[in-house]
Write a structure and sequence with these properties.
Thrombin, subunit H; 2 domains; about 5% helix
Length: about 375
């Protein structure tokens, strides 16, 4: 067994409380959110009217709730419009590990003052199973459950839980996490790599803290740019070496991370194999129909012994199901204000699940955040 790296080893179940402390918000949380809708129209620009309606709520609530109604005139009824496709870059030049300290500001986490901080989601909810886990043992899918199911449904918008959310493309919903003010980490296989001519990928939207289809408490945005190492072939299973490159970093249209905070990133080390240090968050299809997030904590991972640390499959037995793909594997480190992602959920077979990570994931984060601050 490799010698454990005590300098950079993530915090454990027993030590996290010593270094990652809960705190209340440091200032008022009044701010601005954005949500885009896409419509087809004629030659003239649509005209928009907005009405704000105060809603009657139970007495004693701290906040007043409002309905914001949009009326858009000049829309072509019955015609659909989607978010714009993305531009993108395949990253070929890797950053030597000896230079990573130069980019530490791009790899660190961020906790905003207007949010409370809590080392564990507090509002736990009942899970409702919608899909049985019946899978073909001869194929590798994007995920499985190893009993007993340890996923917990939660609803929490304190940091860092505010930074996790649900992605959507024309393939359907899956999971992701903010790793910068406008930078999203998710899975490669959720991206539609067959866009209109002149674009790198088709559209993607992201809603942090997505819950029950309600308007996101921080708004919703869409991706404008994508960075990748090797594209997935979009056939629905993990083929060849796709499990080693099943991550992308996207640039979003809005700095939504200023509202939610974001996770840092770090290169996975095989010195951590077998240590129960890791967390995962995602939106599973078999629990509440991908409408509510689940988390699982303090499981171990095991990097592939025959693959390079730059891009490797990382095995684990955390409980996952389709929809959780793209959700990060993350841990907490002493001295950081929040956790760091080291991989994203990718695939499974009947014996174990596979995440995807390595040094290339960190390179994508550095490149995207450097090109698009």
């Amino acid at each position: 067994m490799a010698k454990k790296d005590k300098v950079t080893e993530p915090l454990s179940r027993n030590t996290i409380g010593q270094f990652f402390k809960a705190r209340a918000a440091r200032r008022d949380n009044l701010g601005q959110i954005k949500r885009s809708i896409f419509v087809a129209a004629g030659k003239d620009d649509p005209k928009v009217e907005v009405e704000v309606v105060r809603m009657e709520r139970a007495l004693g609530e701290a906040s007043v709730h409002y309905e914001v109604r949009f009326r858009v005139d000049g829309v072509r009824l019955g015609e659909r419009a989607s978010p714009p496709p993305m531009q993108g870059n395949a990253v070929e030049d890797r950053i030597p590990t000896t230079r990573l300290r130069e980019f530490e500001s791009l790899l660190a986490s961020f906790a905003p003052d207007h949010l409370a901080v809590d080392p564990r989601p507090r509002r736990l909810l009942k899970a409702v199973k919608r899909i049985p886990a019946l899978l073909n043992k001869r194929r590798r899918y994007n995920t499985t459950i190893f009993g007993p199911d340890q996923r917990q449904v939660f609803q929490d918008t304190s940091y860092p839980w505010s930074a996790f959310g649900r992605c959507e493309t024309n393939f359907g919903p899956f999971s992701g996490v903010l790793i910068g003010p406008r930078h999203l980490l998710t899975c490669n296989h959720g991206i539609d790599w067959t866009p209109p001519p002149g674009f790198a990928a088709d559209w993607l939207t992201f809603t942090p803290a997505y819950f029950d289809g309600l308007p996101g408490p921080f708004g919703t945005t869409y991706a404008t740019h994508v960075y990748w190492i090797k594209k997935d072939n979009n056939d629905g299973v993990s083929n060849g070496d796709e499990g080693q490159y099943d991550y992308v970093v996207l640039v979003l249209n809005d700095r939504i991370g200023d509202l939610t905070g974001w996770l840092g990133t770090r290169r996975y080390s095989d010195a951590w194999d077998g240590l129960e240090l890791w967390w995962h968050i995602g939106y599973p299809a078999d629990v509440n129909g991908q409408q509510r997030p689940t988390f699982q904590s303090w499981f171990s991972m095991d990097g592939h012994d025959e693959q390079p640390g730059t891009h490797e499959v990382i095995f684990h037995h955390a409980d996952v199901f389709p929809g959780q793909s793209g959700g990060p594997m993350f841990g907490f480190w002493e001295g950081d204000v929040g956790p760091r992602a080291v991989a994203v959920q990718s695939w499974q077979n009947s014996m174990r699940n596979g995440a995807s990570g390595g040094g290339d994931l960190v390179d994508l984060a550095i490149r995207a955040r450097s090109d698009h601050p």
